[in-house]
What does this fold into?
Amino acid sequence: MNAATVRALARAAMATAVLLTVAACTDTSPASPPATSSARQQTPTAEAPTTPSDRNTAPSDRNTAPSDRNSDMDIRVTLDGRPVDATLNDSPAARDFADLLPLTLDLEDFHQTERIADLPRRLTTSGAPEPAAPKAGDLTYYAPWGNLALFYRDGDSANADLLILGHIDADTDRLAEADRITIEAAP
It folds into this structure.
């Protein structure tokens, strides 16, 4: 069994456990929509969080909001060949990610919430900010699997293993349908 298959099985097991926990904790929950059986491991995969203060501010306000980052770093991002505005925060993981640029990654859907891709290497997790639930447009890193994730829907909850690296300003439909992402340092 290859590593991609093992990760896919681990994700499916984790998703099932979360769904069972949520269902057990609510007495009014309607039947959950069936998860797509594409819990397959994509070539690239990932997810990551941002700081709590970043989640409640517009991208243009993030430089003045209190947060764990000193300044945002503009990056050039193209989704399926079309440019979008994006920034990385000033966290150690985001700076480590910037060292990997330029990157072009194939994206696959994960859990009908995010587009994910494998990174060429793991990022540092030292000095990570407090966990925060990811929001649509957040560019994140999921440390256990070493994956990059682009959220097109808000995440359910904060996770210490999910590090938010930055934010992409694009509508959710465009994020949800993206098959390829290219990320470069801004000139």
User: Anything to note?
Assistant: Residues 36 and 122 are 28 Å apart (CA to CA).
